[in-house]
């Protein structure tokens, strides 16, 4: 793996039943091709691993199973985050890859199929699924054949059923996916129209997962590159035209850093709030009204019980969440990623 820009290790997610099956999922970029393809800079790959039986703190590399491979022309707007929802499905968040219309026309114009691999059409025909059924999902038998056409997955949130072991396929398509029966959209797509998603979070609060699944993402605003936006990802929506949950110009022009919906116990006043910030150390929260269901923006004050500085002395690299729902801040005193001076902070209400 190579880094220095947006390439390298992108994300890691543990299976909801990790304690029993030992499975985890990793997304990263690589130059190692597994199939013939047209013009590209690198491959974005999603792989499943299982921990070693001899050492539970180490994966067994022999268990690697490739789920997805997406060709990328450029080194920005990659996305690549992996997360599991309370519905048990794996969500794969992909950026638009900075693909231009010229790029799409070039890739869509490829007429020769790679040797030994049947690519998908840019607008795939109706898919003929085998008779095998995995619960409420249908197996995707040809998904190990990576997509050389860029307009299929880029800028999308994919929703996959990874528990398709009985069908001997990498994953299945949930029947509740919005394009399950579509003839012009890949059935993996849950929503699309994203540009440069930073980080997304799934609300772990137990709700009706078929109606109130809450996924919040930070993203660049494609129409106004000087501003950013927070999106509430809803099944079947196109965020090229769908209004943002929140749109604003980040403080001090710092890039937006997505966080988590707080569901811990040590900061009761934050419960249910989406905590996020920007790279320059400013924090905000979004709180949903229990009556109107609208999200309201509020500043997050930092300090002791009797004082409020209102800002964070350092650069916010990201947020983390533990299994109890407590939220952490990953920070650095320098903006350079090569600087080894990061610190980890825990958000705790001083009035608890």
TrEMBL record:
Signal peptide: none annotated. Transmembrane segments: none annotated. InterPro entries: 6-blade_b-propeller_TolB-like, Glc/Sorbosone_DH, Quinoprot_gluc/sorb_DH_b-prop. Pfam families: GSDH. It comes from the Eukaryota. Residues 6-98 form the Glucose/Sorbosone dehydrogenase domain. PANTHER family: HEDGEHOG-INTERACTING PROTEIN. This is Hedgehog-interacting protein. It comes from Galemys pyrenaicus (Iberian desman).
